[in-house]
Amino acid sequence: MKTKQILVTLLAVAVSALVLSSVPCASSAELSVSAKKLVGTWKLVSIEERDASGKVVVPLDFGADAVGMLTYDATGHMAAQAGRRGRPRLETEDVHRAPAEQAKAAFTGYAAYFGTYEVNERESIVIHHVEGSMLPNWEGGDQRRKFTLAGDKLILEPPSFQAKGEKRARRLTWQRVR
Predict the structure, then answer these.
(1) How many domains does the chain have?
(2) What is the distance between the alpha carbons of residues 94 and 91, in angstroms, rounded to a whole number?
(3) Are 130 and 142 in contact (CB under 8 A)?
(4) What is the pLDDT of residues 72-115, one digit of tens each?
């Protein structure tokens, strides 16, 4: 039953992330100067992950060559997806019948969420107000990211987190697509 719940959640969020909410959140005139600079589509360039000692390590969830897309729109909506490149295929197209280990690998190797966003310009923080997520624990909460904009590059740094009981820090570099 857990496998079925994980796969249903995985599919629902993946589909939901493709369709942003149609209820307007903010007009482009209401977005801050920094928020307006975020508007667009961004392709993941790299994920740098460090362990508690500061040593660079391979990202546990996404591997050394992750793929991802991030979108901010002028109405204050956002969607983010990132995943391990080359994840193993499930042995069946019927996701409800996939073996538990395959389902777990699919789930832990991919992240997706969507919602609205706002920018705290004073602290250089973008706050993602999560409406839907592959990780149900994030739904209804906020994901804060320190951000740096440099030309067509966007660097996001989430707070440190736990991965297999170890403290990790992450820095994601994105390239503007449009």
Answers:
(1) 1
(2) 9
(3) yes
(4) 999 999 999 999 999 999 999 999 999 999 999 999 999 999 99
Neighbour-count burial for 96-130, b at 16+ CB within 10 Å, e otherwise = eebeeebbebbbbbbbbbbbbbbbeeeeeebbbbb
Do 76 and 118 form a contact (C-beta atoms < 8 A)? Answer: yes
Cβ contact 85:47 at 8 Å: no
Residue 69's domain spans which residues?
2-176
How crowded is residue 139: how many other Cβ atoms within 10 Å of its Cβ? 14
CA distance linking residue 11 with residue 96, whole number of Å: 11
CATH number of the structural domain spanning residue 60: 2.40.128.280
The CA-based angle 95-63-85, given to 5 degrees, is: 50
Q: Measure the N-to-C terminal CA separation of the chain; round to a whole number of Å.
A: 41
Alpha-carbon distances of 139 from 9, 132, 143, 157, rounded to whole Å: 12, 5, 10, 20
* pTM strictly above 0.85: no
Residue 38 CB neighbours (<10 A): 23
